[in-house]
Amino acid sequence: MINLPPIIDRIKGLIAEGTEASVTYAALEARLALEKVCYDRLRQRHDYISHAQLRKWQPGAVINTLIQDVDEDVTQTVTFSLGKNPVAEGVKLEDEDYIEIGTEVGFDPKLIAKMWNALGQLALHVRLPTNRDDYIPAYGDKVKIRSKVEEVLAEIERLA
Hints:
Layout: H1 5-17, H2 20-44, H3 59-69, E1 78-83, E2 98-104, H4 109-123, H5 142-159
Helix pairs in contact: 1-2, 1-5, 2-3, 2-4, 2-5, 3-4, 4-5
């Protein structure tokens, strides 16, 4: 599992600065965080799938490949526990005592892909000019970018 709190703090700090540049960088950090969540699920199961099988590198495509080829439950919430005692013959595993190690929170891969694409569209591409006299701004719409980053940040915080 990846450590998301430092990334969350970095995104919040950039949003708090409130400039066009800092909000754009917050969008980039949020997009990278979504990638890290998806790629961490891949990393945990990498031995079961080759790099060649990952035809697309986008998070949604990676997760969909994992669902189809490796683990249909890769997006589900999972709690990891360790038994207090070694496995003994004749003892049912459900009757044993366990220590909870952590929880990996599930997510909707379609939502992650939609958010990832929206951040790229809003903040990480320069707007095409409509004619020769059209001004090309350095950044996208700060209000729209901030709104989308805050939406994605809520999902990242949930996953953390």
